[in-house]
Every structure is written in C-alpha cells, then in structure tokens.
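Hey, quick one: can you model this chain's 3D structure?
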Amino acid sequence: MPSSPSGPPSRLAVLWTPEFLGYDFGPGHPMAPTRLDLTVRLVRELGIIDTPGIVLVEPEVADDAALARVHEPEYVAAVRAAAAGGVPDAARGLGTQDDPVFGAMHEAAARIFGASQEAARLVWSGEVDHAVNVAGGMHHAMPGAASGFCIYNDAAAAVRRLLDDGAERVAYVDLDAHHGDGVEAAFWDDPRVLTVSVHQSPMTLFPGTGYATDTGGPRAPGSAVNVALPPRTDAAGWLRAVDAVVPEALRAFAPQAVVSQHGCDAHSLDPLSDLRVSVPAQRTAARWVHELAHELCDGRWVALGGGGYAVVKVVPFAWTHVLAEAAHRPIADGTPVPEAWRAYVEEISGESAPATFDAGEVGFASWSSGYDPDKDLDRVVQATRNAAFPLLGLDPLH
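Sure thing. Here's the predicted structure for all 398 residues.
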C-alpha cells in the first residue's frame, strides 16, 4: 500500500443535518436512524468536528431533475405517491418488508441523494479535498425500483455528478458485506467508471449478484471487479482480499476521483451477514482508500456510509474512524470513549457501550506473500484476478 498521507489536514466537508434521521422505516427495521445519531454524537464528543479545515454542510432535498440523472421519473413519481398514502407499488420494491412505506420517504431519501451529489460537487470543484456523508451509501436502489433498504441511490448520484462535472474516470469502491449491485448496474456499460465490490458470496447473501466473472458490459470490459468472499471470512482474510485487488485495480484504471462506500455490516457482530471482520480492519481499509485517493486523484475522495446494523458496538465506531481518517486525525488505539456518549447510549438503548476504541492493527498476509490454492479465500481472490485483471491490462498471477 502507499504511504500515509502527510501534511496539514485536508479540507473536509461533512454533509450532515438532523433531518437525516427522518429516513426511518419504523420500529424493528434494521436500518435504524439511531446509528446515524450515535455516530455524529461520538464524532462531536471526540472533537473531530472541530478540526481546522472541516466545514459542516447542510444538504438540501434533491429535485426531480437531479434524481432523473439516476432514476426513472416514473419511479420517483411512484415513491411520491406511495409516501402520500397511495397504494404501494410492490413491483417497484415499495411497501415490501425491506422497504416499507413511510410518510417522509421521498424527502428523506432525496435529501441523502442530494447530500452525496453535493459532496461530489464540492470535491470536484476543489472547494474541499474530501467529503463524507455517513447517511449515504444506499447502493442497492435501481433506476426503477427500491431494493435492500435503499430508495434512491446516492452512491450512483455521487459518481454521476462527478462525470457530469467533467471527470473522465471515476472509481467506486464498495466495502459493504452486500454486493454494490445498484451502482454496478448504473455504470455497467460505461468505461468511465470502475466499480470494485468486496462482499460476501452471492450464493449465501442478498442480493445474489456480484460474481468474479461479472466484469462489465460489452462497451466497458473490466469496468466491474467483484470479490465474492466465503462466509466466515475473518478480518485478516478480508484485508488480504482487499489488498489483493483494490490497489492494483485502481492504479491500472487511474481514476480522477474516488467514491467509496463503507458499509460496516461485514463485522462479526452484525446480524445480517456471515463475515467476521473487525472495526480495526475496517479502519485499515478506510485508510487504504484515503491513501489511494491522495496517490491517484490529488486527494479527491467522497466517502459514504452504507449497511451496518450492530447499532451501538460497531456502526458509530467504524464511521467515526472514516470521518477521523478523512480529517487526517486518525483515532489512536485504546482512545477512551467519552463518558457522556456512553451514558447517552445506555439511556436510549439500555446497552453498555465499549469503554475504549479497539486496539491493535490487524495482522494479515499480503497477496505478495503468495497464492495458496488450498485456501477458499485465495481461490476466490484468484478467480477475481483471473477474470478482471487481464481486462485492466494486469497480470493476474503477479
């Protein structure tokens, strides 16, 4: 991996408004807005938001013209109608168990979409170097349908805005446990966009897509790179897979900006995946993406949230690390968790929050140590390299 970014803190835009908490599918739904509230409270208690060079940006609801850059107008109309009390359109994913209808659905989802679009604008214009939207990362939404807790696809919106503003090559890196299918589908046949997704095998997890042999459309061969991990892949194995694919693919593609999705549902405590990744490993991967943005794109980096359903013990810590990394203020191992934040957690949830941030880097064997055909992990990583790397002009065996 490249060396850590150095120098003064980058200019960072944090897209945030309490209105994000209105993206709420109701009691018992895994996508609890509490995870956003706890993340931002933790960031504030740690003083990260007060870092010189950070600006808070309050996003607006995206208008229909902006939404139409990613979604079919008929779908947007269906979302509005369902939210206004009309009959939910199950054929468009509305009113399902994953995506139940709620009154503020259109405005809440369009605000997240608008935030990621604005993050991309700020980065490409040079007003900031990095931008973070922890409410974003709704990577499953399709042009004409909701899917997997996602109404509008803000990740695709960020990529689209970069292209509309003049970027010729944009890399999208998805570290969620679930395949970034909606973003891949949006740019499947667009050679200007590289989508890289590291996720649990589609044979064992929603959405059932993202095989190593899925490598892009006929006009964009090699534009999609998919690493489909075996269930129960641990932190060391996950980092080995990320290390084996992401840096080489991005360097070959030479993007002018990076958009990354940091869904933290690959964690061992998450109820919706079968991976066993730790917060320190997720922190390391965020650092790698940050380093690559500086190496390849003059720092132009948009970082988004995503999945993550261990609301107290995982999500706030994983995303606080992403924000701290973007602020060039990484959190030291063993840093005490502010007592006021822990008290708030216990008050609203009855759970005891960790007293310190997890300590220690995750040891892993880099891919350069050699391929072991007897290991399931190495076989799936090699399958990805065999399928995608030649299309990017890379040797899959070295």
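One thing worth noting: The chain is about 35% helix and 10% strand.
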